[in-house]
Fold:
Amino acid sequence: MVNTAPRPKKPGRNDPCWCGSGRKYKDCHLPIEEAQRTEQRELRRTQETLLPRVLETAREMPALFPAAFELFWNGRYTFDQMSDLDALEERGAERFLTWFAFDYSVDENGTLVERLTRDAAAGTFASTPYEQRLLQQWQAIRLRAYVINTIRKGQGLWVVDIASAERFYIEDQAASKRIKVGEVLVGHLLWIGTAADDTALYGITGAVAHLTSDTAPKLREFLALHHADLQRTTPAATLTDVVQQRSHVLNHFVIALPTSPDPGALDAIIDHTRASLHLDAAADT
Structure:
């Protein structure tokens, strides 16, 4: 739903503080809130400079690209087409590099972001305290699918992770004006700080796939198939484990979607996935 309720009026400096302490606002929560706003501005500025550094570091690892390319694009493109990706897929190069940095295991210790977090702590990756804070939070970030739950026009939106059912608040004025409830976002949400009420704030990062609302139930069915497949080797696996270990399949779903209306396309994706995983119709119900 769209939330159009007015925000509470901010008290004047000499008014009683909203917390009920009996003290003036300027002597109670005003300096706390001002410090939080200053920190939020610095974290946002840091994100805008840190993410390009992370992606630039990813570009310096071309030896790992061919295998990662095959995994992410599901054989549709080869590494030789890297320079043409943006012509082949909307912001294709950025989508691949973002996934490579956050999701792909570059060594036995994990992803590039996890490596940079360790290097920053050791002093071998030049970083500020704010950058180190962001890297720490970014280690668990993976490509995920989110359903738009609530929109605060001109402020941001609440989304629900299809796999975990967790809710996240995206602080993005522009996105809140062009997105509708029920639609789906497939991308990386990066932590950018905490609001005054302790709500974690996230930002939409890089190229995000924006899907129509009719894709949500089929995407859930698609992930359920991969869940059933993963449980063959890991019986206790959850849907969250699927996106943690196989986030690339979300891109497989996105690139399989038709570019023009096709009533049978979503069912065809499900049928193809079931067949490729060697699952029968009863196994995933």
Q: What stands out?
A: Residues 156 and 172 are 5 Å apart (CA to CA). The first strand starts at residue 2 and ends at 3.
